[in-house]
Specification:
Helices cover 70% and strands 0% of the residues. It is mainly α and 115 residues long. The chain is elongated, with a radius of gyration of 18 Å.
Length: 115
């Protein structure tokens, strides 16, 4: 591997992936909680039925993330009448996808780093 590529990776790509992974995941968790609260208040039937888990509070265990993905997979988010909330929902899902890709790229960069 050439020194220019190694420098670009260590000083450019790696810090970008770390920041995108960390900040993106935190921002996604916050946005998913906000979207889940809106769906729970206005479109409660768009969310999955309550799942019995070992904890007493489903949302505390991260169930709000599963609930937003469920609404996306089933297409129930398309019933949201407010353009702002529908756009916020789609933006939240895009943020989750970008965060997921950043984490996967970060892990893959260490797997395929030459020795």
């Amino acid at each position: 591997m050439s020194p220019e590529i190694k420098w670009w990776f260590l000083h450019g790509l790696l810090p970008t992936l770390v920041v995108l992974s960390f900040v993106g995941t935190i921002a996604y968790m916050f946005a998913a909680a906000v979207v889940h609260g809106y769906l729970k208040e206005h479109y409660h039937d768009a969310l999955p039925q309550r799942v019995d888990v070992f904890m007493s509070d489903y949302e505390a265990a991260g169930g709000f993330i599963a609930g937003t993905w469920y609404a996306y997979r089933t297409g129930a988010y398309k019933r949201i009448e407010s353009r702002f909330w529908r756009s916020f929902f789609i933006g939240t899902q895009m943020l989750g996808g970008i965060s997921l890709l950043s984490v996967v790229a970060l892990c893959a960069s260490f797997l395929f780093w030459p020795r």
